[in-house]
Design brief:
Elements lengths: L10 E8 L2 E8 L3 E4 L7 H4 L10 H8 L23 H6 L5
Parallel strand pairs: 1-3
Antiparallel strand pairs: 1-2
Length: 98
């Protein structure tokens, strides 16, 4: 049995609201809960989440390890040495280009 006087009050029928709409009832130490995201409107649970490959990393991996017929572009010596572009995270950390 729980020791009397040290535990918060338990509400077995606590109401959960998202965007002003009642979404579910749960047990909680608060009578009313306000949430921004719940499983009914989160893209992962609703099936609307999309994985976006903006830099073509999958295709690059496939080409690099010979898993497709497409060849990776080769740098020619006449264009000079290859240079890495500075990323936003590098700039934020104060890293300089080499």
């Amino acid at each position: 049995m729980a020791k009397a006087g040290i535990h918060p009050e338990w509400y077995p029928e606590s109401q959960v609201f998202c965007n002003g709409e009642h979404v579910m009832t749960v047990g909680s130490t608060r009578a009313k809960l306000q949430v921004d995201v719940w499983s009914g409107n989160h893209p992962f649970y609703t099936g609307t989440q999309k994985i976006i490959d903006t830099e073509g990393r999958v295709e690059r991996f496939m080409r690099k390890y010979g898993m497709t017929d497409v060849e990776m572009p080769q740098a020619d010596a006449s264009s000079g040495p290859l240079k890495m572009e500075e990323t936003k995270s590098d700039a934020a950390k104060g890293k300089k280009k080499k």
